[in-house]
């Protein structure tokens, strides 16, 4: 046996690289959740004036300053350049790795084979009252340092990766305590004032910021500019259609709302959330057959764990069943209404709507 065969593949060691600024409320929680998983913690501070650095100092001595230039990618690339371990993991200060996912990450670390360039993980973005995940997105979280992958974009940056991928169900959980609502919009507006030409991705994320600030008409303008480029990622094209539908719904423009729901089908097979949007429209119009068709379609779609883009978990699980209960009840088909209420209950057993429907349908049966 040769020395090479005895040594085996190099161990999976991980540098955690983060950029922070005034994160004293969340940084300790984040770093504690990563302890024992990562072998190195690299923190790049972009101008904290609170106790962020003091708190970080309890976990690592590798704390560096970076002059803020309104460019998130530049700061993240600076942090990545300071890493020394085989893989790099990135987190934001308001994210945590929950215990179940910590265990999964430790298993990944001990089993990840050679030749993997990037590992994708889920990000849990929103939760319901029972703490169940309602919105997720998949992101490349762990990357091979020697590939020198770079971050792209001053705001809403992304890491450009290539090669061999490994997709997991490990989740990073986003638990913000506050949000700097105007920061990203300000960066985009400053870039516009400088006369910068926006990439398709810039157009899309600027539109998102406008929509989040309820500037619906301007958001519509930039979503439409984005789609007109025909250069966007498919998942962004689909999400732009969803957000255009939201904007027109807020403006009470029904025809345009429907237009962009249906336009999403040009970019891929119908997603469950779009089917539920159509079901909602037809249910409100008391067109029960159409509503039932679209809600049933939502229940029949394959919810792939490797899907990219925003994932609306309720639309892939309990919501269409709960709405089918309403549809069938209005149509006088109480047996089917009961069946779908119980299907919803399999996902949300303690939800008061499920319990109310159960009692209501039972009263009709007893009568």
From TrEMBL:
Gene3D superfamilies: Spore Coat Polysaccharide Biosynthesis Protein SpsA, Chain A, Tetratricopeptide repeat domain. GO terms for molecular function: glycosyltransferase activity. Residues 15-107 form the Glycosyltransferase 2-like domain. Transmembrane segments: none annotated. The keyword Nucleotide-binding does not apply. InterPro entries: Glyco_trans_2-like, Nucleotide-diphossugar_trans, TPR-like_helical_dom_sf, TPR_rpt. Keywords: Glycosyltransferase, Transferase. Its EC number is 2.4.-.-. It is an enzyme of class 2 (transferase). It comes from the Bacteria. PANTHER family: GLYCOSYLTRANSFERASE, POLY-BETA-1,6-N-ACETYL-D-GLUCOSAMINE SYNTHASE. This is Glycosyltransferase. It comes from Anaeroselena agilis. The lineage of its organism: Bacteria, Bacillati, Bacillota, Negativicutes, Acetonemataceae.
């Amino acid at each position: 046996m040769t020395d090479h065969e005895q040594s085996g593949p190099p161990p999976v060691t991980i540098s955690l690289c983060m950029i922070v600024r005034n994160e004293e409320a969340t940084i300790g929680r984040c770093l504690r959740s990563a302890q024992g998983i990562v072998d190195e913690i690299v923190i790049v501070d972009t101008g904290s004036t609170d106790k962020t650095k003091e708190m970080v100092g309890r976990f690592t001595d590798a704390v560096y300053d970076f002059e803020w230039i309104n460019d998130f990618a530049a700061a993240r690339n600076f942090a990545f350049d300071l890493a020394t371990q085989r893989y790099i993991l990135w987190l934001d200060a308001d994210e945590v790795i929950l215990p179940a996912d910590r265990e999964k990450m430790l298993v990944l670390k001990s089993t990840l084979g050679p030749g993997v360039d990037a590992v994708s993980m889920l990000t849990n973005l929103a939760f319901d009252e029972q703490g169940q995940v309602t919105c997720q997105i998949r992101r490349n979280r762990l990357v091979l340092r020697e590939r020198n992958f770079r971050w792209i974009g001053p705001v809403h940056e992304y890491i450009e990766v290539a090669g061999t991928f490994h997709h997991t169900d490990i989740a990073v959980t986003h638990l913000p305590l506050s949000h700097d609502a105007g920061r990203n919009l300000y960066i985009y507006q400053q870039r516009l004032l400088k006369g910068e030409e926006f990439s398709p991705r810039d157009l899309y994320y600027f539109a998102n910021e406008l929509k989040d600030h309820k500037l619906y008409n301007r958001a519509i303008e930039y979503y439409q500019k984005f789609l007109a480029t025909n250069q966007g990622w498919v998942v962004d094209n689909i999400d732009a259609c969803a957000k255009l539908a939201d904007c027109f719904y807020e403006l009470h423009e029904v025809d345009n709302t429907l237009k962009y729901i249906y336009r999403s089908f040009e970019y891929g097979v119908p997603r469950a959330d779009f089917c539920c949007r159509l079901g909602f429209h037809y249910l409100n119009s008391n067109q029960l057959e159409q509503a039932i068709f679209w809600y049933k379609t939502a229940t029949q779609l394959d919810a792939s764990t490797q899907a990219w883009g925003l994932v609306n978990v309720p639309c892939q699980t309990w919501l269409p069943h709960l709405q089918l209960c309403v549809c069938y009840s209005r149509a006088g088909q109480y047996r089917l209404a009961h069946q779908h209420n119980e299907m919803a209950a399999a996902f949300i057993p303690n939800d008061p709507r499920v319990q109310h429907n159960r009692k209501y349908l039972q009263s009709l049966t007893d009568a």
